[in-house]
Here is the input.
Amino acid sequence: MTIETRTANGVTILDIHGKITIGEGSAEVRNTVRELLQAGKKSILLNLGDVSYVDSSGIGELVSSFTTVTNQGGQLKLLSLTKKLRELLAITKLLTVFDTFDDEAEAIASY
Amino acid sequence: MTNSWGRDYDTATLGRARKISGPILSGELDISFGSSLDYLELVQDVSESVGRLAGFDDDGQYWISLSVRESVTNAILHGNKQDLAKKVALSFHFEKHRLVICVADEGRGFDESILPDPLDPSNLLKPSGRGIFYVRSFMDEVSYRNLPRGGWEVRMEKKLKSNQGEQADDD
Here is the structure.
């Protein structure tokens, strides 16, 4: 898994590529988010359009990142969910927790 | 890796096998490996290939592989506690209208009735506890048992919809 970071209108966008699974270093997402918070960047958008596979540990990483950001007064939102990831979030009622977007401009404007 | 016909397979061969020989709707494939998370990618690849061999569509293959991956992860982490000397046994049983998958470890198992409900509002934001829920969601039947020889086994069953079998025959 690789993560590229960019910024648009004060929102830090993490373009995540590959798998978010227990065997593929799912802690990378959590660690990257933690580093952003330490740098004072609290508006975070995870672009998941190029994520090929997520398991329950990966879902847990997304949840953990969300609660960490929220507890520090920030906002973490999700962009470009794949059909499979949307289903994983839906059946565990997590679509009621996360703000999700299909359009990046719309997501950035929401902060 | 060998199957019940005594032929050797690697995962690439499994992926191509149906194109060569047509759907395989009976038989058995057994795999055994040490308790390392490094095997998860192999497990996922094999499970997807087996799903394809059995005639499941892309979605079916995906959810089968996810369920197997979750079950094997539990076996490695919680059953065998990542002790490399302890084995995880994974078996696929091809039947005409269903695929039966068993994952066995050398642990003591667990009482599913006391597992927290991941849909309970108080658990929604917990970082763990969804794996078994996903398995139950995506497989048609799931059961657990203590093995007579010791150890713990999860048995999962996925039924093949009739139109999936017809599609497989037409490929």
